[in-house]
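[SOLVED] Need 3D model of a two-part complex

Original post:
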Amino acid sequence: MLLKLENVKKNYGSFSLDCSLEVRKGQVTGLVGRNGAGKSTTFKSILGLVYPDSGSIEMFGKKLSDVTPEDKEQLGVVLTEANACELFTAKDILPVLKAMYKSFSEQEYLGKCKQYDIPMEKPLKEFSTGMKAKFKIIMALSHDAKLLILDEPTAGLDVVMRTELLDMLRDYMEDEERAILISSHISTDLEGLCDDIYMISDGKIVIHEETDVLLSEYGVLKVTEEQYESIDKEYIIATKKEKFGYLCMTNRKDFYRENYPQVAIEKGNIDDLILMMGKGGRK
Amino acid sequence: MKGLLIKDLKILAKQKKFFLFVLLLMVIMSFSMEDVSFSATYSVLIISMLTLTTISYDEMNGGMLFLLSLPANRKTYVKEKYVFAILNLVFAAVLAFVFGYVASMVKQTDIELGSFAASVMIVLVAVGMALALAIPVDLKFGAEKGRMIVIGVLAGFLVIVTAGYKALTGVLHIDVVAELAKLLSQIESKVLLAVLLAGFPLVLLLLVMFCSYLISNRIMAKKEF
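Solution:
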């Protein structure tokens, strides 16, 4: 186990986080949820940037408070809000990272910068959004980290860059000792990459499921009001009122397909989950 | 910590225009004024304050989030800031001293090295004290707000010291400077005198810096980002 959060609670007045999750070796774990659902607070708690009110966080098998800067060399981090000094160029940052990480690979850093068209002599403040996002990931990937913590790494990237980036992450995962915790608001990114997915809503984890199960067994039922009254709701996990009746999220698509052949059932995806499990959607 | 030091040096290296400006100012001042020591000591003040500039760059654009996600924790950050502040003070003092010496050679004026060194040192200690106040304040309130607070506090401090001095001389008729000089003149050994004059402020500065470091550590440990 590379990372484990147990009942991590944090109160911010009207918002409160209560999160438990695990990231295992060899796995890519996704965290999805709407803006303000608690993803960033979760990431910041993991990185010790905010202090949870209660609960425990373990990283690399150690309590978070015992994690040393040396341990942190095993970590590669991308946070949406975090940026290196804007005066710096990619060339300026190289010696900083080199001094920070024993296993920093200059060759890999320079190679990736070249491969992804990062200008070495241009200050970061002149970078486009896409360039900044790519550069952040290059920084996180050039020191042979065991665990990547990526908060919205694809934000601001176009479809080509996103594909490139996801390929980078797949390459990274070829070593089975590694793991990634990633959040994104672009669900297709996660569907193709993650082994399991946590969904967070209003600060609470509402679903934890393997991606395969999620995609094969979850589904959305479109039912009229009469149909809604008559169906067995045992495997309905969320319901949303619509003009024509109800949208129901199920985690046993097959059950309804067999028993209610007249009901229209669509394949579930993460977007539907976010839509239906979010505020006002749950049953 | 090495990584953070390199980062701060890189930030300094980006202030080329600023350094050129200071240099120009020093040259102009030293040639328009009789005494070169003023321009030299002035530069100590300006350059030392660059430590605060690095803090404001660190805070900009989620910079602290970035730095603390690297293999550096809050403690390393604070430690590095003080090491950097001291290195920067020493650098500024050496620069001022060399500049003053060269300027006086060029102008062919006599400069008494002892008193010149003393004036550089007085400024060094004063600026160091100001930094010892400003660093924790900046860490607590942010560089922008911090600057206002520090200026306010220093101004208040000056007012109090001036008022205190006036009260002593005007009301109680004690001439502090003369008393101090009398006290010091009783010390016969010149070496001891020099050590005392130079050593006491430096030791005091280091002590204040250390306290300031402890306070900054506490501030950072409590801070959330």
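Edit: The CA atoms of residues 12 and 41 of chain A lie 10 Å apart.
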